[in-house]
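quick one before i forget lol
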Amino acid sequence: MTQTEHFLALFKSSSALLDGHFRLTSGKHSNQYFQCARVLQYPKNAEVLCSAIAKHYQSAGITLVISPAIGGIVVGQEVGRLLGVRTIFAERDNGEMKIRRGFEIFPDDNILICEDVITTGGSVREVYDLLKNEGHQIAGVASIVDRSNGKAAFDVPYYSIIQLEVNAWEPDFCPLCKEGVPVIKPGSRVFKS
């Protein structure tokens, strides 16, 4: 069994890999959904999955791990624990990604941005832009699942432990919508109608 097959087996055994008709955080529709919270609810799974990320960045001199809320928080916390560094998260306030709750980023911090699943990279890009605009040093981006089909790109190294080619359609071109299959929005972000 390859490492990817082992990781996917963890998702399947946790009922975290779902089939159906889903509205993703990006707004696109898909016939598959990775509910990372289901696999990460088991600390041993979180350790196994996140240790691959921590190992990849162990020699990068990371001093701080940050994640976009809410999906990336568990990933960031576990990667930070394994690297032995501080972990914080950014969250939306009136639709804008911000660092709140008294979290601090120091001038000499070397930062890793962690996320659970990346489809378009929108949330990570918001955190990245926030940090860059404030002049912070970003060492890399990491995720458990890259379902961007190779399209997510950042100006820093990007590492993902599972890369999958999955279908993601704009709503106007979604074959499941055309078939009348009801769409489900399982993620954490609330959309305005």
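fyi The chain has one domain: 3-178.
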